[in-house]
């Protein structure tokens, strides 16, 4: 959350561009962020909800115990 606030302060200054690689859906959800996914075809635009990281986080939040049990069973 503190990093999101820092990015907002930098963004408001108008003199900043942030390029990052992250697994965090919270960081990916930064307003007006351009998200790119690296695939076998190169870089592709993607929305937060289309990322695997968002889907995994959502599945965990919906059923944390079931999620962990399934992961351990693999």
Question: How many strands in all?
Answer: 2
> Between the first and last Cα atoms, what is the distance in angstroms?
32 Å
Helix/strand/pairing category = mainly alpha
Order of helices and strands: HHEEHH
From the alpha-carbon coordinates, what is the Rg to the nearest angstrom?
15 Å
Helix proportion:
40-55%
The total tally of domains equals 1
Average pLDDT, rounded to a whole number, is: 93
Give the low-confidence spans: none
Biggest sheet layout: 2 strands, antiparallel
Instruction: Please give the order of strands in the largest beta sheet.
Output: 1-2
Principal-axis shape: flat
Specify the oligomeric state.
single chain
User: How big a fraction of the residues is strand?
Assistant: 5-15%
Number of helices, counting only DSSP H or I runs of 4 residues or more: 4
Describe the structure.
The protein has 74 residues and is mainly alpha-helical. Helix content is 50%, strand content 11%. The model has no long low-confidence stretch (mean pLDDT 93). The protein has one domain.
Q: What's the SSE blueprint?
A:
Layout lengths: L1 H12 L11 H4 L7 E4 L2 E4 L6 H11 L1 H10 L1
Antiparallel strand pairs: 1-2
Primary descriptors:
single chain, 74 residues, mainly alpha, two-stranded antiparallel sheet, 4 helices, 11% strand
Please outline what is shown here.
The protein is mostly helical. The protein has one domain.
